[in-house]
Design brief:
The chain has 264 residues and is an alpha+beta fold. The chain has 2 domains: 105 residues; 141 residues, Phosphorylase Kinase, domain 1, CATH 3.30.200.100. The chain has a 6-stranded antiparallel beta sheet with strand order 1-2-3-6-5-4. A hairpin with a 2-residue loop joins β2 and β3. The longest helix has 25 residues.
Length: 264
Amino acid sequence: MDDPVTEDEIQAYVDGQLDARRHAMVERWLAARPDIAAQVMADKALAGLLRTGLTAASTPPQPRRLETERQARRLGRRLLVRRVTRGLGQAAVASLLLSAGWGLHAGLAAVYSPADAAPRIPLFVDEAADAYRTAMRENITEHKLTYQDLTAPSQLASLDPASSVTIPLPSHGWTLLGAQIVPWDKGDAAQIFWQGNDKTLVLFASQTDDNIFPALNEDGLQVATLDQHSYVYWRAGEQVYVLSGNLTEDVLLLIANSLQQQTG
C-alpha cells in the first residue's frame, strides 16, 4: 500500500524535487483524486512557465522586488487553477493527467474561456481558502505577523484610499496574533489571526465591486467546504468576509454570526 502523500511532497512534486519512486507514487495518488489533481496540474504547469521565464530573464531581480514577485507567483497560480478547473470537468482533468504524462505546461490557459459556467462559490471564498491553506502550511502564526494593529490592514484592504474595511472582533477569549495583507485578483485583503484555547481563528476581509457576486445573499451566512475544511462567508455591501480556522463548522457559524452583526 502506498504511503500517505503530504502537502510538502505535493509541493516537491510540483517543483520537480522528488525521487523517481516517490514521484510515481504521488502520480498514482493524484490520479485517484481528480479535484486535487486539477489543482496540482495547474501548479505544475505554471511552475514550468515561471522557471522558463526566470531563466530567460537577462537581469536578476533586485532584493526589493523579491516579495512582490513571490506574491505575484502565488496569485498567478491561483488564477491558473481556477481556469483549468472551470474549463474542464474533473474526469477530463484526470484523463488528461494520465494520457499526457503530466506534461501539459504551455497550453493550459487555452482551455478556459470567460463564457464558462460560474464557479460554485464566490471568487473571494476561493481566494480566502487558498490564503488560509498557505498560512497554515507556512506556520505563519508561529512568526511575527506584519501588523499588530488592525488600522493599517483595514485601510489597505479597501479599494478607496479614503475609507477602510470594517474588521469585526470576536468575543472575549480570543487573543489577536496579528494580521497580514494577501493579494487576490480583485485587490488586497486583510487576513487576521486570533488564538484561543489552542485554536486558531482566521478572518479574510476585503472590499470589491458589488457586481462580481450579484447572487450572493447579503443577509445570511453561507458555508463552503473545500478540502474537507469549512469556510463561513458573507457580504456587507461591497465588503466581503470569510471566516476559517481549526474549529468545527458549528462553532465557526456561531462566531461568524457575532462578527456579521458588527459588519451590517
